[in-house]
């Protein structure tokens, strides 16, 4: 029964950010509020998730080739070391890479800064049939932009509404947006930063600026609180993913994504030709037979 | 011993197209000239390949973030149903999708046709640190362009030299190009086309034009013969992959790619900061401790 529970309880319902009732301080980053209670249980369930994700992704891709407009966008946000890269590797890595569109949003370039903050994001919206993955996103514009005072307060304050409008517009054009906040504790972040510094094969993932951001952990939590509450809408909800345990984080994001794809329920397109006619051509008029 | 043989014999040497000695008609698409002799043996070896590919790809990616220019480009060519998509799913799918750049070259658009044939290809050359995968490529411009007479003979004839120059230029800018020709038999193609037509979940992969191309199978083989012989160079060799057996095809491409990555031998970059200093900062000056 334990193994099946993960499939029975809707994971999205358990992890969705409800604006009226969400307090980031009450979220335990090490919790396992729904689903598996151990790494091995999670691995077993993930294998099932993988098979279903793969099949749904193929149908979504096929639907796109047949003129369908639908696509899925997985937005990943979280503090350094919260596991955005790990989710891409272990969750996005479960499906055919040809059906993925992965975009990383780093510090905006000078050219990007000359545009509206959503400009560079719009350019990376996945095409129909694809699963897009955003490694950071337009939410940086109400997170680091706010914490580091990169724009006046009046500016970042109006962005919540602009983001809601943008995501509603995406929904209207066939995009199912799934936003996952990977929530880690300061202690776990410390542990992972130490690991990056001690392991020569991980040092490239670290940069000294990470400590400056870490020093502002409380300010970031306040900024996340607002972003999650103000922008968890019916068409583009936020999910708060406890991320201190990597196995739980990966499992939870995979399940949330799977449930979203099930709801999309992509369908293989009707062929634009007659299969019976084509089979007859292959049978009766094949010059190579 | 059988399982180890795949690792001992260099797969690239066994499958490389040697211009002076290559005849496509002598290639058996169902052969297993090197490596595993069964699906289960191939699966066991592929698991080892996967682990090593994954590690090398991460180092390549890291090297790129540190200013390295090197990257790998896997070019896939072959008749319809030869398995280009299957290789992307099962071989490219072995590594972190964040380190991949996949480009599909379909029939050129009107805008693309207004440029030189290499224009759209140059735009898809993988960035440093990435593994690029071309699903079809600039070789279409000496294959379908020749078979269907889309350009005058004088035009496609000069393209072999232009392609060699282009690929030498890529090599000079840090690109290791690995070109795999997936070789299937007319009978196997027929079987796979029938399968696509009979299975409603595969019909989207078929289009009636596939039969027109199939009718020109011999002309395509002649065009492949020339492309492989004229463009298998020291810096960008062609590999002829027997592709009637999917398990062999995937295994062989994975091994060829692995050997190329081993030769690249990417290295994790030296950090631009002092890890000892950073560890001390985390230990002694962490405001969150």
Can you walk through the features of this model?
Two copies of one chain form a homodimer. The first copy, chain A, is of the alpha/beta class. The first copy, chain A, contains 13 helices and five strands. Chain A has helices at residues 2-8, 11-15, 39-65, 84-90, 110-113, 119-122, 144-147, 153-172, 186-198, 209-215, 217-230, 246-264, 275-284, and strands spanning 71-78, 100-104, 131-135, 175-183, 238-242. The first copy, chain A, has a five-stranded parallel β-sheet with strand order 2-3-1-4-5, with helices on both faces. In chain A, helix 1 runs parallel beside helix 3 (39-65). In chain A, 43% of the residues are buried. The model of chain A is unreliable at 1-6 (pLDDT under 50). The interface between A and B is large, with 49 and 49 residues.
Low-confidence runs of at least 5 consecutive residues of chain A = 1-6
Radius of gyration of chain A: 21 Å
Number of strands of chain A: 5
Helices and strands of chain A, in order, run as HHHEHEHHEHHEHHHEHH
Q: State the helical fraction of chain A.
A: 40-55%
Q: How many helical stretches of chain A?
A: 13
Instruction: Order the strands across the largest sheet of chain A as they lie in space.
Output: 2-3-1-4-5
Judged by helices, strands and strand pairing, the structural class of chain A is: alpha/beta
What multimeric state do the chains show?
Answer: homodimer
Shape of chain A: globular
The amount of beta strand of chain A, in percent, is 5-15%
- Biggest interface: A-B, 49 and 49 residues
């Amino acid at each position: 029964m334990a193994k099946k529970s993960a499939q029975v309880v809707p994971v999205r319902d358990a992890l969705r950010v409800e604006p009226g009732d969400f307090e980031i301080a009450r979220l335990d980053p090490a919790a396992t509020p729904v689903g598996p209670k151990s790494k091995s249980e999670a691995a077993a369930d993930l294998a099932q998730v993988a098979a279903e994700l793969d099949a749904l992704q193929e149908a979504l891709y096929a639907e796109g080739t047949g003129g369908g407009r639908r696509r899925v966008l997985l937005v990943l946000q979280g503090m350094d070391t919260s596991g955005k890269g790990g989710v891409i590797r272990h969750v996005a890595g479960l499906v055919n890479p040809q059906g993925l569109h992965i975009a990383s949003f780093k510090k905006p370039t000078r050219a990007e800064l000359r545009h509206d903050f959503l400009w560079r994001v719009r350019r990376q919206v996945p095409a129909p049939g694809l699963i897009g993955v955003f490694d950071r996103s337009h939410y940086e514009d109400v997170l680091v932009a706010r914490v580091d005072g990169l724009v006046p307060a009046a500016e970042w304050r109006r962005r919540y509404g602009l983001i809601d409008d943008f995501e509603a517009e995406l929904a209207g054009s066939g995009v199912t947006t799934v936003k996952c906040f990977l929530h880690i504790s300061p202690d776990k972040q410390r542990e992972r930063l130490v690991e990056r510094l001690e392991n020569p094969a991980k040092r490239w993932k670290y940069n000294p600026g990470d400590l400056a951001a870490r020093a502002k952990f409380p300010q970031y939590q306040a900024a996340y609180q607002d972003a999650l509450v103000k922008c968890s809408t019916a068409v583009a909800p936020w999910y708060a993913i406890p991320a201190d345990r990597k196995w739980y984080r990966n499992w939870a994001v995979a399940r949330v994504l799977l449930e979203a794809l099930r709801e999309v329920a992509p369908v293989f397109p009707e062929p634009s030709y007659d299969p019976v006619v084509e089979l007859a051509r292959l049978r009766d008029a094949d010059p190579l037979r």
